[in-house]
Amino acid sequence: MKRCVYCKAELTDGRDIDVCDKCGFKVWGEKMFNTIVQNMKNARENGDLCHMNQVDDLPKNINDFRMLERV
Predict the structure, then answer these.
(1) What's the structural domain count of the chain?
(2) What is d(CA 61, CA 47) in angstroms, rounded to the nearest whole number?
(3) Residue 38 predicted with pLDDT over 90
(4) Cα distance between residue 65 and residue 48, in whole Å
(5) C-beta atoms surrounding 58 within 10 Å
(6) Domain residues for 60?
(7) Distance, CA of 60 to chain centre
(8) What integer is the mean pLDDT of 38-42?
(9) Is the pLDDT of residue 60 over 60?
């Protein structure tokens, strides 16, 4: 379950940014936040996003992390 990084509200719409609309509007303003959300959606659709923020996707040992640093 994803939560907003500012207010911890649950995010249920599958967005790629961990910020709710309420907080996003306060931080960036409505127009800019909507642009950020749309650009993230476009990047996901184009395959340009790397989702390495899940524990299951992380390397299992330190040597695998070191290999990532060399890339």
Answers:
(1) 1
(2) 27
(3) yes
(4) 22
(5) 11
(6) 2-70
(7) 22
(8) 92
(9) no
Average pLDDT of the chain is 80
Give 7-32 pLDDT, tens digit per residue. Answer: 999 998 888 889 999 999 999 999 99
The CA distance from 11 to 24, in Å, is: 12
Residue 46's pLDDT is what?
A: 87
- For residue 48, CA distances in Å to 8, 13, 16, 19, 27 come to 27, 20, 12, 20, 25
pTM of the model: 0.64
Q: How many Cα neighbours within 13 Å face the side chain of 24?
A: 20
DSSP secondary structure, the chain, as one string: -EE-TTT--EE-S--SSS--HHHHHHHH-HHHHHHHHHHHHHHHHHT------SGGGS-SSHHHHHHHHH-
> Which pair of tokens denotes residue 57?
């996707």
Determine the Cα–Cα distance for residues 23 and 62; give it in Å rounded to an integer. 36
